[in-house]
Amino acid sequence: MVILIDTNVIIDIAIGRMPFSESSYKILKLCRDEQVKGCVSTRLFCDFFYILRKEMSIEERKNFIKDMRGYLRTVIVTDEVIDKALDNNDITDFEDAIQYACAEYVGADCIVTRNTKDFGNCPIKAVTPEEFLELLA
Question: Which is more confidently placed, 41 or 122?
Fold first, then answer.
């Protein structure tokens, strides 16, 4: 199974945001143990580095990213991905449209996010970390 993991799930783990971090961490563990193929977009790294600048040192953020890159596939945001996001009339938030286009690009079975409503009724289903874990059970 291939999943695209949204930025908010990774941030929950990095800062231990309760009550979300526990289920989010379980998903990363599934990826690390190669039970699920996890993917993230290249824009996640920039967003992560910027958003967590007050919560984590530069070295902590770099180490977190280096660790993730060991078991998560990086989906490059290409011209094709941007064009697909621009053409997507079902998702109004452009950042989410980029995430969705990345999920399409890698043939993801679902997008794991805490903001499922932002992805509307698109063919690739958006699920919360808890919902994803229930699907696997």
Answer: 41
